[in-house]
Amino acid sequence: MTFTENYKKNILPALKKELGKKNPMAVPQLKCIKVHVGIGSIMTRGNKDYENVIANVTAITGQKPIVTKAKKAISNFKTRIGLPTGVVTTLRGPRMYDFLNKFINVVMPRIRDFRGVSRRAFDEEGNYSLGLKEHTVFPEINPDDIEKSHGVQITIVTSAKSKNEGFALLTALGFPFKKDELISEKKSKRK
After folding, report:
1. Domain layout of the chain by residue ranges
2. DSSP H/E element including 90
3. Nearest 5°: phi and psi at 158?
4. Any residues with CB less than 8 A from the CB of 107 and at least 6 apart, and which?
5. What is the average pLDDT score of the chain?
6. In this structure, which topology does domain 29-173 adopt according to CATH?
């Protein structure tokens, strides 16, 4: 069973019941996933070659990214108008579901000292953003061929109307959120 079939048969009815929605179209769903890598530090170091970053994002997502450019000149950040600042790709449809499935089941277990993702990274519309310090956790990247490690920012855009709806959707999809730590130990009084 594919990820989309599982969503339609199992996850959608469960979410509909949990959130108390009558119409299945009112249940939150994924719109797109954006994968972003900032290249501002590469540009300010003098090495203006960012082709390896584009190749890494292409290997990770399966689609060629676009290069974003600065719209304003800001002297404190050493940017000029038209200077490349990042590499971004937007995933939709089956490619989005394949990436999410790979990210949850393959990439997250490979993260060093992984204990779950934070629940606080939702914005007011129920979208979720998280950053990875190293791109080497993706299985498509060969660690022996790396010149310089870089981070990856992933934003999951949903149709949720609130943080709680976004949390319910991602939990149903299998996102491993951190468990609430309950402190049950009471301090003993010394006499």
Report:
1. 29-173
2. strand 84-91
3. -120, 170
4. 137, 138, 139
5. 85
6. 50s Ribosomal Protein L5; Chain: A, (3.30.1440)
Give whole-number Cα distances, 39 to 52, 84, 88, 130, 189, in Å. Answer: 11, 7, 10, 17, 55
**Is it the case that residue 185 has pLDDT exceeding 70?**
no
Least reliable range by pLDDT among 19-23, 27-31, 72-76, 87-91:
72-76
Q: Is the pLDDT of residue 128 over 80?
A: yes
| Contact call for residues 70 and 115 (beta carbons, < 8 A) | no
The label of the residue with tokens 């299945």 reads: 24
CA distance 101 to 83: 34
Whether residue 123 contacts residue 97, with contact meaning beta carbons closer than 8 Å, is answered with no
Residues belonging to the chain: 191
Residue whose structure tokens are 């498509």? 140
User: DSSP letter at 112?
Assistant: T
Q: Return d(Cα 112, Cα 46) in angstroms, integer.
A: 31
